[in-house]
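Posting for a labmate who doesn't have an account.
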Amino acid sequence: MPDYTLEDIAKLAGVSRATVSRVVNEHPNVSEKMRLRVQEVIQETGYQPNLMARSLVSQRTKLIGLVIPRGVHGFFTDPYFPKLIEGISQACNQYGYTLTLSLFFSDKDERELLPRVTQKGLLDGIIVQATGLGNQSSIISQWGVPFIFAGRPMGISDVSYVDVDNRAGAYSAIAHLAHLGYNKIATVTGALNTTVGADRLEGYRQAIQERNLELDENLIAEADFTEFGAYFAAKKLLKQSPEAIFVASDTMALGVIKAIKEEGLLIPDDIALVGFDDLLSAAFLGTQLTTVRQPIGKFGFKAVEMLLDIIENGPQPPRRVIFDTELVIRESCGSPFPYGN
């Protein structure tokens, strides 16, 4: 196949070079008839526009960056992240953008490399996973590129973000366990230096207090959103003989289940269990896991739409979109009528 130029496409379509350029760069001042004619020739010839030249004309790279700051454990093993990236990627594909990924594994990486990622002209916009954002939060206002947070960032106000109602989700889990008659309810939290971990613990505390249940600090064990960390947190909690455990993520629930089994206990006969996320594994464990479902894919998709609104229309007042959660009742909570799927 020959390498067609912009001039070749213009000649084949019977239009000017400027018209082809406007079509390629999605300029609005082109008639629909002319646009379709040029696009048909482009499709027939397999013409590939010069993306660098196109970027110079449009001042857009058509690239969106996803930044995963330091301190995010289990990126390559936690099913949460693939679902988030799936939602983000679907939106990027739908709106004609390409997704890039930046991972930071240490404070040094984040300090030295994040300013490069956020420099003006490299990306059209950035989605920042709020969990684990470190000292770089102080330079957010200096970024030269539109951005939005996936998750509510800790210690930063006046920024746009998309999140789920983590407090309400945790609250619903405890409320259900209390409804089933459990009084001594423990929790394995996520990292409490993150809004996700802190908000889910707050939902737990609120539900316990409102139902006059035992609020004992010995029934609270912090982990780090990893199966390994949750295993050791559960080992500590099981010494308190809880009747039920709320775990702040399904990934951590796997570690808790391991600890419970090692104690010779049965779920839910001896101890009830509720997770958070509704990842694929939750429905396929030996005892199906009752969990709080969050729409991770929709969460990611919406983050892209909000970011594109900023890219297309310029700076805007901070906007927050919060998705509801849903309690999915399965076998592990001991409910006589599990209905989750």
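Reply:
Got it, the structure tokens are right above this. The domain at 6-58 is CATH 1.10.260.40 (434 Repressor (Amino-terminal Domain)).
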